[in-house]
Amino acid sequence: MQEEQAALVAPFPSPTVLFTGLDPVQVISVLFTVLFIIWAIYTIVTAYHWLRYGHRSAVAIPALITHVAVSGFLALFAVSGIRP
Description:
By secondary structure, the chain is an all-alpha fold. The protein has one domain (22-80). The protein is 73% helix and 0% strand. It has helices at 2-8, 24-53, 57-80. Helix 2 runs antiparallel to helix 3 (57-80). The N and C termini lie far apart (62 Å).
């Protein structure tokens, strides 16, 4: 009787059991790939709208260059592991 109750009251398995088959390097690389795709789509859509619908397209080119340069610097800084 006590064995049956003990079997019914057994604790849930640890959540680490769910992640034993996942390699953290692969998870992080997939995450960064997805983030890069989202960033690229955002940049393309923003560039199109700045150039097509902006009333001052001459300002759009330096703004796009700044956006890509700063975004690239931040992305490289984030993955480099260097601390400020």
